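Subject: design request, 241 residues
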C-alpha cells in the first residue's frame, strides 16, 4: 500500500492521487520540461549552428581558390615570365636567371663556365652600382597588346640576332614564335642623394618559342614608342628568313 506524499491518502498500486498538491506538482513538472529541452539545444538552434558552419567552410574554400587562381595567373605563363623578369632586371643577384630568360636554352648551357660567370658578374655588378645610387621598386606589370604578323616575325629575328651576339653560328638558326605579348613594366625610382622620386616605364616582349618556352626580348627601343613598332620595323629591315 502506498501513500500520497502531499495529503497522506492511501493509494492502490499505480494509482495517482487527485489532491491539490499532486496536481500542482504535475503542472510544475510539465512547465519545466520545455526549458530543459531548450537548454540542451532546440532543433532550430542546431539548424542555425550547422548552417553557419557550412557558410564559414564554403567561404574559406572560396578564399583559398581565389588565392590559388591569383597565384597561378601571376606566376605562370606569359604574365608569370614578365613579372619574374621585371623583378630580376635590376636585381644585383639575378644575372644567371636574366640570361636563361633572354637566350636560347642550348646557348645558355654552352656558355656555362668562365664565360657565363663573367657575364653574370658584370650584370650583377652593374645592378649593384645602380642600386647604390637609386632605390628601385617594381610598381606594375601590365599587358599592353598581343604580337601578330610582322611583330611576331620581328620577335623571331630579334631573338636569333641576340643569340648571335654571343655565338655567331646562331645567325643561321631560325626560331618559331607560337605567340607573344607586349608588357609594360613600371618602376618607382628614388634618387638616394637628391631624394627625388620618378617613374620609369619600359616595354618588353614575352614570346613563347617552339622548344624554348617563354622568353624575354628587351632591346633598346631607341626612338620607337612601342615594342610592336620596334619588332615590326625589325622584321621589315632584316627580312623574314
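Subject: RE: design request

Done. Sequence follows.
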Amino acid at each position: 500500500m502506498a501513500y500520497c506524499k502531499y495529503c497522506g491518502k492511501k493509494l492502490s498500486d499505480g494509482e495517482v492521487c487527485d489532491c491539490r498538491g499532486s496536481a500542482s506538482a504535475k503542472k510544475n513538472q510539465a512547465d519545466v520540461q520545455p526549458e530543459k529541452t531548450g537548454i540542451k539545444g532546440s532543433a532550430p538552434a542546431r539548424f542555425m549552428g550547422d548552417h553557419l558552419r557550412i557558410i564559414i567552410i564554403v567561404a574559406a574554400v572560396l578564399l583559398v581558390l581565389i588565392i590559388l587562381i591569383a597565384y597561378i595567373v601571376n606566376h605562370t605563363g606569359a604574365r608569370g615570365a614578365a613579372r619574374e623578369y621585371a623583378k630580376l632586371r635590376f636585381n644585383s643577384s639575378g644575372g644567371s636567371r636574366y640570361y636563361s630568360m633572354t637566350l636560347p636554352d642550348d646557348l645558355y648551357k654552352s656558355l656555362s663556365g668562365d664565360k657565363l660567370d663573367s657575364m653574370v658578374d658584370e650584370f650583377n655588378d652593374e645592378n649593384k652600382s645602380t642600386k647604390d645610387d637609386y632605390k628601385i621598386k617594381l610598381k606594375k606589370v601590365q599587358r599592353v597588346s598581343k604580337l601578330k604578323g610582322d611583330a611576331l616575325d620581328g620577335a623571331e629575328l630579334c631573338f636569333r640576332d641576340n643569340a648571335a651576339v654571343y655565338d655567331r653560328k646562331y645567325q643561321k638558326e631560325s626560331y618559331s614564335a607560337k605567340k607573344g605579348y607586349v608588357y609594360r613594366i613600371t618602376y618607382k625610382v628614388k634618387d638616394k642623394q637628391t631624394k627625388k622620386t620618378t617613374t620609369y616605364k619600359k616595354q618588353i616582349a614575352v614570346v613563347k618559342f617552339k622548344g624554348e618556352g617563354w622568353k624575354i626580348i628587351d632591346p633598346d627601343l631607341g626612338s620607337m614608342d612601342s615594342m610592336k613598332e620596334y619588332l615590326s620595323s625589325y622584321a621589315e629591315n632584316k627580312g623574314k628568313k
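Residues 34-39 have pLDDT under 50 and may be disordered.
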